[in-house]
Amino acid sequence: GLNAVKNVETVELTGAAAVTVALGSAVGSLSNTAITKLVFNTDDAGIDVVNSADTAHTYAFGAANTGAATLNLATGVTTVNVALEGAGVVGALTVTPLASDLVATPALVSTVNIASSGLATAGANAIASVAAQAGSTINVTGSKALTIGALTNKATVDASAFTGNLVITGSAGADKIILGAGADTVNTGSTYATTDTITNFTKADTLVLTASTVGAAADLVKYDASNSLSLEAALVAADASAALGKAAYFVFGGDTYVVANI
After folding, report:
1. Do 38 and 61 contact (CB within 8 A), yes or no?
2. Which of 64, 146, 228, 240 could cross-link 41 (Cys pair, CB 3.0–4.6 Å)?
């Protein structure tokens, strides 16, 4: 089997059915330490599963991949490395800590490193959704355009080292999104209580207020918050200054805020 193979670092998994791979030293698990990368190119609607996922391996997805993926972390593991290697699609990417680790540390968070690359000049890499423990960090690197269709739980997304175009839809929580050098698009539906924070936003980037009907420059009005005594007061007043379904923006404490009247 693969545990006896030598001088091989990458194993590609293909076919019309989802696969389950167990890592570690247990009987039936992939214990060959020379293999450091698993490439999934399964053409199906199922879920590829890695049990006892660790940091020593990279979990890659190629252009032929169509299904979702679940990485069940090994004990004590909080960081995983994911690679998108060519205009492929990953469904729901789920990163789940070991149950006993969650019992010991209920607030346990994960770090998901996503490298977006690929030789194809057309198309973009895509992940339908990323689900990790609330408060986890998702680091995005590489240069191939990437769409993350949804964050299931609030997260910090750090794309500061990413040079491609990122399209991302935030969660219902207070996400922190750091944009990179590309022309990025952030879809957000946050509230007063769960305000999203976007850093490195430039003229090339686009903010989409998913709960509003803002579609033209006239739909976004500037509010003067210089006399507001608090951020909450500024938010309420700016909200009232915009027509129903439209939005207002203002500066308070050196930061720019955007609020939609919904």
Report:
1. no
2. 64
